[in-house]
Design a protein that fits this description.
The complex is a heterodimer. By secondary structure, chain A is mainly beta. Chain A is 0% helix and 49% strand. Chain B has no helices and eleven strands. The chains are: A mainly beta, B mainly beta.
Chain lengths: 115, 112
């Protein structure tokens, strides 16, 4: 059963706390992406990675960090520096290898709420 | 930044009617894609149209692309209640495998 999974479904963050969102894929895709979605809005790119041990900032990377130690995994950490973290976070993957405009496959999302 | 813009922002129609939504973008593209998002869920890919194509069909979906006007339309024929969702267009304006640029979406409501 191939696909992309995200956990947890809901995550609560206290002030000043770092939290990590998990994203795993078994599609053997090279490229992975993190997007943020605010209510009634489209998706904004946070970070992306085309290959293991390499990643690039997207449009709104401030206050976030990522790692890509394994092809299957691309965790996103929301740091205390992100002052407005409440949002719906979506992870996606694509075949990658530098191909432009590929179809992306999305996980079910994680909703992050601040206590 | 968001380059694609969908129009209208929201659309409510009766079941069985056709739904049309539009997307505009700003720079040259290799292809344009449409995705659907059910409430609180991830996005699902619907259809991809390449820059050298003008029209593409998939089931009840029909997509057109006008590169001279930098616009695309998505037509859903014979709508069903299950079509209620938000629809997003996405382009490869960034280039390479650097991610897609999404619009803000059209929220479609199908009234039974």
């Amino acid at each position: 059963d191939g696909g992309i999974t995200q956990s947890p479904k809901y995550l609560f963050r206290k002030e000043g706390q770092n939290v990590t969102l998990s994203c795993e894929q078994n599609l053997n895709h090279d490229a992975m992406y993190w997007y943020r979605q605010d209510p009634g809005q489209g998706l904004r790119l946070i970070y992306y990675s085309q290959i293991v041990n390499d990643f690039q900032k997207g449009d709104i990377a401030e206050g976030y960090s990522v790692s890509r130690e394994k092809k299957e995994s691309f965790p996103l950490t929301v740091t205390s520096a992100q002052k407005n973290p409440t949002a719906f976070y979506l992870c996606a993957s694509s075949i990658g290898q530098g191909r432009r405009g590929e179809t992306q496959y999305f996980g079910p999302g994680t909703r992050l709420l601040v206590l | 930044s968001q380059q694609g813009e969908e129009d209208p922002q929201a659309l409510s129609i009766q079941e069985g009617e056709n739904a049309t939504m539009n997307c505009s973008y700003k720079t040259s593209i290799n292809n344009l894609q449409w995705y659907r998002q059910n409430s609180g869920r991830g996005l699902v890919h619907l259809i991809l149209i390449r820059s050298n194509e003008r029209e593409k069909h998939s089931g009840r979906l029909r997509v057109t692309l006008d590169t001279s006007k930098k616009s695309s339309s998505l037509l859903i024929t014979a709508s069903r209640a299950a079509d209620t969702a938000s629809y997003f267009c996405a382009t490869d304006e960034r280039g390479g495998a650097d991610g897609l640029t999404f619009g803000k979406g059209t929220h479609l409501i199908i009234q039974p």
